[in-house]
Amino acid sequence: MAQPVLTFTDRGIYCPAGDFHIDPWRPVPRALITHGHSDHARWGMGSYLATDKALPVIRKRLGPITADAIPYGQTRQIGSATVSFHPAGHVPGSAQIKVTVAGETWVVSGDYKTEPDGLAEPFQPVPCHAFISECTFGLPIFRWEPQPRVMDQIARWWSANAAAGKTSILGAYSFGKAQRLLAGLPAIGPILTHGAVEEMTQTLRDQGYPLPPTIRATPDITAKTHPGALAIAPPSALGSAWSARLGPAEEAFVSGWMAVRGIRRRRALGTGFVLSDHADWPGLNDAIKATGAHRVFVTHGYTAPFRHWLETKGYDAGIVETRFGDESEPETAVTE
After folding, report:
1. Bridge partner list, 98
2. Residue 247: its pLDDT value, please?
3. In this predicted model, what pLDDT tens digit does every residue of 204-252 receive, in sequence order?
4. Confidence class of residue 329 from pLDDT cuts 50, 70 and 90?
5. Is pLDDT of 328 > 80?
6. Is 10 exposed, middle or buried (0-12, 13-18, 19+ CB in 10 A)?
7. What confidence tens digit (pLDDT) does each residue in 3-45 have?
8. Which residues pair with 250 in a beta bridge?
9. Per residue, what are the HEC states of the chain?
10. How many whole angstroms separate alpha carbon 236 and alpha carbon 35?
């Protein structure tokens, strides 16, 4: 019996034909990385391969590493496996990784979303025999509103706060979500950024991603120096000394999890905006259908109910246990 294209190990997803791992969570000699978030791009690998658009963020986060870049769509032979990277739409530079061995193609999605956001390279379905899909929001209750509508909600909230003499502080992950907000919101007033956000934003600016001017919120920046401002910071900065110096202020959290009222209450936030960098229920189903795959493995999220759903639709579905995270994970703050 032929060996499968990919196997699942205690270090991560492994390709025997190419002797490499995809997004491993323990040190391995050779790692192919879907994107720069810390649960997928970890320190300690012998070498890294990522898209040319993802690698600057990975280097920024991991420091000196042995790494190589590959453009979207370019094929590379690694052992007896042929690999290529294709846009995942999750964050700038994010990719699905296509692996073909002896005529059989498997695709590892990493994280993805199917709605174009105007910044990340739009998701492209990749035909394959087997698809490894995230399902962070793999329940029917998760159905996102169109991005322009959410951006309008945030803009109206910001405008109302500014009229009341308050700073608007948004909690958003420093890489991906923060820049998506910067690219999508109208210029109502000055935009302040926490150090963690500014560092990732500048890394993307240096690559040519179109992002508006921002002001790093150093200790001398206050609500008096920049009235009516919007400040974007990691979720861990909400309710902190960093946010206190920008007061009086209104705080809100931007996440797909804000669709769940109980989570919003536990975070003690009066305002939450539902905007996710992961596919919602229709997006997951549409993406899987578009691959043409009959075999589907699901990982990190509502894996059991989503696998059951796929089985009712005729898929040969399984669950892959991984150590990947989701939008509920806290992000370490960079202090000023």
Report:
1. 84, 107
2. 87
3. 999 999 999 999 999 999 999 999 999 999 999 999 999 999 989 999 9
4. very low
5. no
6. exposed
7. 899 999 999 999 999 999 999 999 999 999 999 999 999 999 9
8. 168
9. CCCCCCEECCCCEEECCCCEEECCCCCCCEEECCCCCCCCCCCCCCEEEEECCCHHHHHHHHCCCCEEEECCCCCEEECCEEEEEEECCCCCCCEEEEEEECCEEEEECCCCCCCCCCCCCCCCCCCCCEEEEEECCCCCCCCCCCHHHHHHHHHHHHHHHHHCCCEEEEECCCCCHHHHHHHHCCCCCCEEECHHHHHHHHHHHHHCCCCCCCEECCCCCCCCCCCCCEEEECHHHCCCHHHHCCCCEEEEEECHHHHCHHHHHHCCCCCEECCCCCCCHHHHHHHHHHHCCCEEEEEEECHHHHHHHHHHCCCEEEECCCCCCCCCCCCCCCCC
10. 22
Do residues 108 and 6 touch, judged by C-beta distance below 8 A? yes
Q: What residues are paired with 99 via a beta bridge? A: 83, 106
**Cα gap 241→94, rounded to integer Å:** 33
**Is residue 113 within 8 Å of 138, Cβ to Cβ?**
no
**Which residue do the tokens 């986060």 mark?**
61
- In one-letter notation, the amino acid at residue 231 is A
Residues 108 and 90: beta-carbon distance below 8 Å = no
CA distance 306 to 83: 28
- CA 291, CA 289: separation in Å to the nearest integer? 6
Helices (H), 267-336: 281-291, 303-312
- Tokens, residue 191: 């935009």
CA-closest candidate to residue 5, choices 110, 126, 101: 101
Q: What are phi and psi of 237, to 5 degrees?
A: -85, -15
- Which amino acid, residue 5? V
User: Tens of pLDDT along 185-202?
Assistant: 999 999 999 999 999 999
Chain-centre distance for alpha carbon 64: 23
Q: What pLDDT is recorded for position 264?
A: 55
Measured CA to CA, the distance from residue 230 to residue 239 in angstroms comes to: 15
